[in-house]
Amino acid sequence: MNAVVRRALSVLEQIWLPILLIAIWWVASEGSTSLYFPPLSKIWATTIELFANGQMIVYIGVSLGNIVAGLLIASVLGVVVGVTIGRMETLRQMVDPLLQFFRAVPQTALIPILIGALGVGIAPKIFMIAFACFWPILLNTIDGVRSIDPQAEDMSRAYRIPLWLRIRGIILPAAMAQIIAGVRVALAISVVVMVVSEFFASTTGIGYFIQRSSNAFAFADVWSGAIVIGVLGYLLSELFRLYERITLRWYFDSAALAEEGGVRGGRTLRRRLSDLTGSIGTLKVRTKQ
Q: Do the Cβ atoms of 77 and 134 come closer than 8 Å?
């Protein structure tokens, strides 16, 4: 089986269930007269119209800008603070209770307070996204830095490698897998916080569009906005997965080699055990003779 066929089968495995569910939804809702659950055909027509007149594109652009800005701020701060705390065990023990407290605080509950303090605009939205995304990136960075082999740090000190060079050449590459995992978690959080933050005192964005449509009882528009958010979250996840594969190619290659080596090692071990069992059986036969 060539690579093209394998790729086609892989894509088919991923899309057959969503296509089936959409088809069932389309057929089952076709005769619906409910205000809250309009037919999927009407939702689809509404979505096409919103994209055709450019309204949804504007909302998506604003929401994406908030996500990117908040996630970038959270990534930079999370990595810098995480490396600092991860390298200093005493500092980590001191601030660990505070970290656990703030990570448990529901970020969406603070949105009305921040909007009242910062006013209407993109500033409170970006701040809330950054605040919510900061904690998974920070904690994953701390764990990644703490998991580095101490011998690597000792050797770098023995060779008197400058601190900035140790961070760039040893600490960050070694912790990068967990940092990327924290950013992946933060990306999903950013979409949720983006929508909720735009519900309050906002004048644009997908969340504002859903809230305005709900107040006007335009539930086809509400469903359209919700579906667009789901598709947007999926696309962002896939793009980040592609970025992850490129950034951590060495990590996935080494994992594949280790797995292949483990399979080969297991086969070799089973073959050796089989040979040993055969030798023992032969020895018993000879002893009886």
A: yes
Contact by Cβ (8 Å): 207, 194:
yes
Which residues make Cβ contacts (< 8 Å) with residue 65, sequence separation at least 6? 122
pLDDT at residue 252, as a whole number: 67
In order of 24, 245, 248, the CA distances from 259 in angstroms are: 40, 17, 17
User: Residue 161: helix, strand or coil by DSSP?
Assistant: coil
The SS3 assignment for 8 reads helix
Which of the listed CATH numbers 2.50.20.10, 1.10.3720.10, 3.30.390.30, 3.30.930.10 matches domain 39-275?
A: 1.10.3720.10
User: Is residue 61 pLDDT above 50, yes or no?
Assistant: yes
Instruction: For 204, list phi and psi in degrees, rounded to 5.
Output: -160, 170
What is the chain's mean pLDDT, rounded?
83
Rounded CA separation 152/156 (Å): 6
Distance of CA 77 to the CA centre of its chain: 18
pLDDT digits (tens, 9 = 90+) for 148-201: 877 777 777 777 778 788 888 888 888 899 999 999 999 999 999 999 888 876
DSSP 202-263: -SSSHHHHHHHHHHTT-HHHHHHHHHHHHHHHHHHHHHHHHHHHHHTHHHHHHHHHHHHHHH
Q: Tokens 């070694």 identify what position?
A: 174
d(CA 124, CA 194): 10
pLDDT at position 287 = 46
The model carries a pTM of 0.80
Task: Output the six-digit token pair for 17.
Answer: 């269930």
